[in-house]
Amino acid sequence: MTKPSTHRAHRKQAVAAFFAALIFGAGLALSGMSNPSKVLNFLDLAGDWDPSLALVMASAIAVYAPIWHWIKGRHRPFLAESLALPSKMHLDRDLMLGSALFGVGWGLAGICPGAMFAALGLGKPDLWVFFLALIGGSALYQILHERGT
Question: Which of 13-17, 64-68, 126-130 has the weakest average pLDDT?
Fold first, then answer.
């Protein structure tokens, strides 16, 4: 039987994750990053280039960098037993291939998964095709990964 304190901790983590996602989505929507044409204009260096995505990324880094240094210095996070950091410190085939596929998908669709969820929440139904492709790609990865490919 699971302890009540464990349930309480999981509930706090779920509530924190919900509000973090809500703030992230609101930020994407407010900055216009849920609009694929804004992203595509950022990627179009030879055409009508729109630098606003770079400003959004720079703002995110400026806000997060000091918080990250503060978090790293703590003995334990607020809502977990330990800080979960990636253990892999090298580039491998899977990381490179996944990054390339993500970039190609982002360039073709003009939207990344986080912004896609924000756009769906704003009632942009044309992105359901992207959502279904995201689910299909994730399922394909799972199948291939289980086969050891």
Answer: 126-130
Q: What mean pLDDT, rounded, does the chain reach?
A: 85
Give the DSSP H or E segment for 87: none
Residue 1: pLDDT band by 50, 70, 90 thresholds?
low
Report the 10 Å Cβ neighbour count for 121.
Answer: 14
Contact 51, 42 (CB under 8 A): yes
Cβ-Cβ contacts under 8 Å for 48 (sequence gap 6 or more): 41
What amino acid is encoded at 28 in this protein? Answer: L
**Angle ∠(62,114,91) on CA atoms, nearest 5:** 70
CB 28 within 8 A of CB 34: yes
Q: Identify the burial level of 134 via C-beta atoms within 10 angstroms of its C-beta, where 0-12 means exposed, 13-18 middle and 19 or more buried.
A: middle
Report the percent of the chain where pLDDT is more than 70.
96
